[in-house]
Amino acid sequence: MTGADPGLFGPGSVTWQTHGDPMMWIAGIRALYLQALHPRAVRGVMQNSDFRRDAWGRLMRTANFVGTTTYGTTEAAERAGARVRKIHSMLTATDPDTGERYGVDEPGLLLWVHCAEIDSYLDVLRRSGFRLTDAEADRYVAEHRESARLVGLDPGTVPADRAQLVAYFEKVRPELAAGPEAREVDDFLLRPPTHPLLVPLREVLWRRVAQLAYASLPPYAHELYGRPAPAPATVTRQLRLTGLLLRRVPARVRWQLPPKHILRAMARLGPDARPAPYKLGR
C-alpha cells in the first residue's frame, strides 16, 4: 500500500524473502549449538537465566525478535532493539576460573552471537534447497549489519559479505571450546524436559530435528563437541529432503502460527509483499 512503512528491510530485500521459510527453525537450533561454543557468550546466558526451564521461551523470544525486525514497522523494530540493548546492559557474568566479571553486552560477545545466527540461517537455507546466488547471499550478510546495529553493534565492525564472515570465524576459532555450559546446551537440545506422555514423541520427532541441526554444523564444531556427524553431502541431502517436506505445508497455514508477523506485514503493505523465493533476482 502506498505510504505504508516497509520496515528496516522491506519486500525488496533478501532478508524479507528468506525469513518466511520453515527451515529457519532448524537454522535457529543450529545457531544455538554454535553459539554455545563460545565460553564467555554461553556463560552469560546460563548465569542469567534458567536455560533448562526457559529454553523454549528463549527460542520463541529470538524468533519473535527476528520476525519483528524483518516484517514489523521501523518503529517496532527499533523498539525491539532498544529492549534487547536495555536488558543486555543490566546483565553480567563471571568467569569461574579467573573471577573476572564482565558485561554480556561486550561487543565481541554480541558479534559472536550475531555471526553464529547469520551463518546458521544462510547455511541451512542454501543447503536445504532455498535458491540464493552468491551475490544474494552476500547481500543477505550485508543487510544484517542493520540487525547488528539494533543489538548495539557498530555496523562497520560487522561482516558485510560471506568472505568477511569466513574470515571472522577463522579469527575467533581459538576462543571456542565445548565447556560445561556447551555440554548442558547439547544435552538439553537432545533431551528437552517434557511431559512423560510426550517422551516417545520427543524421541521420534524432536531428536531428529536436533540431530539434523547439529549435523549441519561446520566440522570444527563437531570436533569440539566430540560427537561425530554424517558426511556433509549426506547432511545436505537430509536438509534438502526436510526442506522439501516442510515447504509442502502451505505458507498461509504456517504463517497462522503466532505472532503472525508475515500476515500483519501483508495486511500493512498489500498482498504483493508476500515473501517468496521466486521474487529474488527479479
Automatic annotation (TrEMBL):
Cytoplasm in keyword set: no
InterPro entries: MPAB/Lcp_cat_dom
Name the UniProt record assigns to this protein: Oxygenase MpaB family protein
Natural source organism: Streptomyces coeruleorubidus
Keyword Oxidoreductase: yes
Entry keyword set: Oxidoreductase
Segments forming domain ER-bound oxygenase mpaB/mpaB'/Rubber oxygenase catalytic: 16-247
Molecular function in Gene Ontology: oxidoreductase activity
Bilayer-crossing regions: none
Coiled-coil stretches: none
Enzyme Commission number(s): 1.-.-.-
